[in-house]
Design a protein that fits this description.
Pathway: Purine metabolism; IMP biosynthesis via de novo pathway; 5-amino-1-(5-phospho-D-ribosyl)imidazole-4-carboxamide from 5-amino-1-(5-phospho-D-ribosyl)imidazole-4-carboxylate: step 1/2
InterPro entries: SAICAR_synt/ADE2_N, SAICAR_synt_PurC, SAICAR_synth, SAICAR_synthetase, SAICAR_synthetase_CS
Number of helices: 6
CATH architecture of the largest domain: 2-Layer Sandwich
EC number: 6.3.2.6
Largest sheet: 7 strands, antiparallel
Low-confidence stretches: none
Order of helices and strands: EEEEEHEEEEHEEHHEEEHH
Radius of gyration: 18 Å
Enzyme class: ligase
Bound molecules: 5-aminoimidazole ribonucleotide, aspartic acid
CATH superfamily of the largest domain: ATP-grasp fold, B domain
Helix content: 25-40%
Number of domains: 2
Number of strands: 14
Oligomer: single chain
Catalytic activity: 5-amino-1-(5-phospho-D-ribosyl)imidazole-4-carboxylate + L-aspartate + ATP = (2S)-2-[5-amino-1-(5-phospho-beta-D-ribosyl)imidazole-4-carboxamido]succinate + ADP + phosphate + 2 H(+)
Strand content: 25-35%
Length: about 260
């Protein structure tokens, strides 16, 4: 579809805001069925009980997520991603978000370690998929397939599709990061329903970045992800930059605000 390659640029203040989350904003896109996903510098944890603005985080997540989604599209894993527009924004297809956080774990850490008393860093006997209900007031409680189907958040067929996608994403990401000297401990993904006329398919949506993955240096076990913020370790931007560098992603410097007109390609 040709028109998708030439979205017209609408100045920020004239765009219709569809949704604002903790780390991203969704704006109306240039064509029907598209949206613009804007990455903010805000970092939150424990459902926004902890909040900070971390200069440069949005730019890094936009680039890293672009890289991951472009590669997923290329290996035939369907995603909402169309293309990156600028330092902080990407063009995506509008999907109906399924209200679940799908977590895939390869190594014990975080809430799994806490809940089951497992030492962080223990290799799991096999990859484990978990579902959490997306609801801030309830702190995203863990749910089972029973809850998901009983409350109609997804059908059994959709859960099958989601799990198949989760496994493919995990396999791809594990290999990608391993090649960069990074262990993929766990990650969170979100899925959406993409409508193509009467047909619907489940695609990977949202973002995949160091905000949504646990990434440990293969040699030192240094944390290269949002746990640096959750656990007050500092050095978050430096760690995300290192992830980008190892993936071979070049990050241009963002122009400072108020330095004159900026041409957005
Ligand atoms: N995650 C879960 N909710 C939001 C995010 N980003 C991600 C974490 C971690 C994985 O899901 O970043 O990679 C598991 O998190 P937890 O806290 O359940 O151990
Ligand atoms: N992003 C979620 C929050 O704002 C959860 C997390 O990443 O810890 O609390």
């Amino acid at each position: 579809m040709d028109f998708l390659n030439k979205p017209r640029y609408v100045p920020m203040n004239r765009r219709r805001r569809i949704y604002e989350g903790k780390a991203k904003i969704l704006y109306e896109g240039p064509e029907p069925g598209t949206l613009i996903q804007h990455f903010k510098d805000d970092a939150t944890a424990f459902n926004a009980k902890k909040h900070e603005v971390i200069d440069g985080k949005g730019v890094l997540n936009n680039r890293i997520s672009e890289f991951v989604f472009t590669n997923l599209n290329a290996i035939g894993v369907p995603t909402h991603f169309i293309r990156r527009l600028n330092m902080r924004e990407q063009l995506i297809r509008e999907v109906e978000i399924i209200p679940l956080e799908i977590v895939v774990r390869n190594v014990a850490a975080g809430s799994l370690s806490k809940r089951l008393g497992l030492e962080e860093g223990m290799q799991l006997p096999r990859s484990i998929i978990e579902f959490y209900y997306k609801n801030d007031e309830l702190d995203d409680p863990m749910v089972s397939e029973e809850h998901i189907t009983a409350f109609g958040w997804a059908t059994p067929q959709e859960i099958d599709d989601i799990m198949a996608l989760a496994i493919r994403v995990n396999d791809f990401l594990s290999g990608l990061f391993l090649g960069a000297g990074i262990r993929l401990v766990d990650f969170k993904m979100e899925c959406g329903r993409m409508w193509e006329g009467e047909m619907m398919r489940i695609v990977v949506a949202d973002e995949i970045s160091p905000d949504s993955c646990r990434l440990w240096d293969i040699k030192t076990n240094d944390k290269m992800d949002k746990d640096r913020f959750r656990r007050d370790m500092g050095g978050l931007v430096e760690a995300y930059q290192e992830v980008a560098r190892r993936l071979g992603i070049l990050i241009e410097n963002e122009r400072p605000h108020g330095s004159g007109p900026v041409l957005v390609k």
